[in-house]
Amino acid sequence: MEKLNWGIIGLGRIAESFSEAFLDIKNAKLLAVSSKDKFKLNKFKNLYNIENKFLFENYEDLINCSEVDIVYIALPNSLHYYWVIKSIENKKNTLVEKPATLKLSEIKDINNNLINKDIFFGEAFMYRYLPQIKEVINILKNHEIGNIFSMKSCFGMNLITKKKFFFLNKKKRINPEDRKFNKQLGGGCIYDLGCYPSSFSLMISSIIDENRFGNFNIINASKEIGETGIDINSSAELVFENGFNSKIYSSFKKNLGSLSIIKGDKGTVILNDTWKGNNLNIKFNNKNDKLINFDNNKNIYSYQIETISKNLINGIKKISHPGMSFRETILNTKIIESWLNE
Predict the structure, then answer these.
(1) Based on the number of CB atoms within 10 Å of its own CB, is 130 exposed (0-12), middle (13-18) or buried (19 or more)?
(2) What is the DSSP track for 164-200?
(3) What is the DSSP-derived secondary structure letter of residue 50?
(4) Strands 245-251 and 93-97, sheet pairing
(5) What is the DSSP secondary structure assignment for residue 265, as one 8-state letter?
(6) DSSP state of 127
(7) Which of 33, 160, 232, 257 is least surrounded by CB atoms within 10 angstroms?
(8) What would you measure as the largest C-alpha separation in the chain, in angstroms?
(9) Closest by Cα among 262, 314, 307 to 139
(10) ∠ at Cα 249 (102, 226), nearest 5°?
(11) How many CA atoms, within 13 angstroms, populate the side-chain half-sphere of residue 334?
(12) How much is the pTM?
């Protein structure tokens, strides 16, 4: 079987989880990695049998490597825009970790740079490729819960406090250099977690109305700022022109989990673990409820890598649904920027 050769720029935690997926995939190979940290380069070399000539200390050297078919950019958020542009300039297929950019002006500039270039570009929302999400799409398109009118979607975990004796909470020591808490690196719970429920809201809105799903207002936006100047607890409501409303939540302060609840006039779809894939609960108004189980043995990033690799091997450069379309990336960046500025 033909394999697509991948290269990864930035070898942090996400890159580690992403790389493990290649062990489950037959149509893709992790060929090259790049990091300024020699320890990380050697670690990836040993784990994934990467040849020395494909270990790069300079990011641009990996982008320029002719044997790399696609680059996955897993750097801190603030570096995404610069290295996406570099990759596009070198006519390299590119998948960038979410959020694609920190500013609406940056993603629009990326769009301009992609004009007349026959290359793939995608924002890495891996949850969209999971079997669970494809089933949700089928349920909604088949009107099993009727007309969809609202949703609630959360992504939050407590990174601020820890439990001590007698159930008392103690504040954790925050490392200001940690990318999640560093404003200059694009930290904050909205950039890190909130972009998931906002992107999911866009996907559901597009199922309701493919043409008007991008027309929305943001109301009731709130955010709490932490000691390092980034948002640590945030919420907002998206009101779409097509009649769909979505309440979205993100937090570094509260264990909100990964719950999403989609409501229709005939029933409700409940995703208890929206971003990693799990069982679906469907509660109907006038008939028995339904539980759909999914096998979670496969690496959650493998579905994304496998689909993109298959498309590129077949010469398909445009991202396929339900992957994050470029229009959705622009709209999601607009939501995030507006949410932060409210």
Answers:
(1) buried
(2) -GGG-EEEPPP-TTSTTT-GGGT-SHIIIIIHHHHHH
(3) -
(4) unpaired
(5) S
(6) G
(7) 257
(8) 63
(9) 262
(10) 65
(11) 14
(12) 0.94
Per-residue pLDDT in tens (0 to 9) along the chain, 342 residues: 699 999 999 999 999 999 999 998 999 999 999 999 999 999 999 999 999 999 999 999 999 999 999 999 999 999 999 999 999 999 999 999 999 999 999 999 999 999 999 999 999 999 999 999 999 999 999 999 999 999 999 999 999 887 655 556 667 788 888 899 999 999 999 999 999 999 999 999 999 988 778 889 999 999 999 999 999 999 999 999 999 999 999 999 999 999 999 999 999 999 999 999 888 999 999 888 998 988 778 899 999 999 999 999 999 999 988 999 999 999 999 999 999 997
Phi and psi for 192 in degrees, rounded to 5? -80, -40
**Burial class, 258, CB count within 10 angstroms (exposed 0-12 / middle 13-18 / buried 19+):** buried
85 and 73 in contact (C-beta within 8 Å)? no
Is residue 31 a contact partner of residue 50, using CB atoms and an 8 Å limit? yes
Joined together, the tokens standing for residue 199 give 């992107």
Q: Which domains does the chain have, with CATH numbers?
A: 4-124 (3.40.50.720), 128-299 (3.30.360.10)
